[in-house]
């Protein structure tokens, strides 16, 4: 059971917008730790998608955006494309676990 | 362009030691702005951070509570690499292991992954 909670799956048609939530607690996201997001395509290593809650690394399309509020964070994908079909993970830190890195359980995005 | 190249055996017997190495190109294991991590992924445990090594005037290590008694992450400066040793492995340690770089809380560069199976 992951410290950060994500929905197991979301889906959307091409061109639509989907949002993936990441729910934590007062010892991680709510403790002002940044949230980062990763995209994992089948058979590949995770790739950094969003860091520092809402910053896109160079090369990541602006269709991807992140936000954080209270003990939760969200990843939004607008203008959904077939190549966005992947697993998405949130990541933060947790003060109750000695400052350990924590991940969400992952969300499978299906493009219909 | 930073690249991480992992190596090590894919099969380890129960109770033995899992050993993996990560070769760094495009950066230095002795960098004072990076930390070098090991993360594993399995269907049952998802993504799990194991620990890190980093240099800030001296060498430091941080380890996950879940593996703290069994893990050693070491830098090897002459070869610009770092390694993972996990002792007393059980089948629950079967996973895809990744080495990663951390510049400030997120993991911006990942190795290719090594599937390690613990089985007799």
Question: What does this protein look like?
Answer:
The complex is a heterodimer of chains A (112) and B (120). Chain A is mostly beta strands. Chain A is built from no helices and 9 strands. In chain A, strands 1, 3, 4, 7, 8 and 9 form a 6-stranded mixed sheet that branches. Chain A has a 3-stranded antiparallel sheet with strand order 2-6-5, with no helix packed on it. In chain A, strand 5 and strand 6 (72-77) form a beta hairpin. Chain A is globular, with a radius of gyration of 13 Å. The termini of chain A are far apart. In chain A, 38% of the residues are buried. The mean pLDDT of chain A is 96. Chain B is mainly β and 120 residues long. Chain B is 0% helix and 56% strand. In chain B, strand 4 and strand 5 (46-55) form a beta hairpin. The radius of gyration of chain B is 14 Å and the shape is globular. The termini of chain B are far apart. At the A-B interface, strand 7 and strand 8 of A face strand 5 and strand 10 of B.
Q: What's the helix and strand layout?
A:
The complex is a heterodimer of chains A (112) and B (120).
Chain A: E1 9-12, E2 18-23, E3 36-40, E4 47-50, E5 64-69, E6 72-77, E7 86-94, E8 100-103, E9 107-111
Parallel strand pairs in A: 1-9
Antiparallel strand pairs in A: 2-6, 3-4, 3-7, 5-6, 7-8, 7-9
Chain B: E1 3-7, E2 11-12, E3 18-25, E4 35-42, E5 46-55, E6 59-63, E7 71-76, E8 81-86, E9 95-102, E10 107-110, E11 114-118
């Amino acid at each position: 059971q992951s410290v950060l909670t994500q929905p197991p799956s979301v889906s959307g048609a091409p061109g639509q917008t989907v949002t993936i939530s990441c729910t934590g607690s007062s010892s991680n996201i709510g403790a002002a730790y940044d949230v980062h997001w990763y995209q994992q395509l089948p058979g590949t290593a995770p790739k950094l998608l969003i860091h520092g809650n809402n910053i896109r690394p160079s090369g990541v399309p602006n269709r991807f955006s992140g936000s954080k509020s209270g003990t939760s964070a969200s990843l939004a994908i607008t203008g959904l494309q077939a190549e966005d079909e992947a697993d998405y993970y949130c990541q933060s830190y947790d003060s109750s676990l000695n400052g350990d890195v924590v991940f969400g359980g992952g969300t499978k995005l299906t493009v219909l | 362009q930073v690249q991480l190249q992992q190596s090590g055996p894919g099969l380890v017997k129960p109770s033995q030691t899992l050993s993996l190495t990560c070769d760094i190109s495009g950066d230095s294991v002795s960098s004072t702005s990076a930390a070098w991590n090991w993360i594993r992924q399995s269907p049952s445990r998802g993504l799990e951070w194991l620990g890190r090594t980093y240099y800030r005037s001296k060498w430091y290590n941080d380890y996950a509570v879940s593996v703290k008694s069994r893990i050693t992450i070491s830098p090897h400066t002459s070869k610009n690499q770092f390694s993972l040793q996990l002792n007393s492995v059980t089948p629950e340690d079967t996973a895809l292991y990744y080495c990663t770089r951390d510049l400030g809380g997120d993991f911006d560069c990942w190795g290719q992954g090594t599937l390690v199976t613990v089985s007799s």
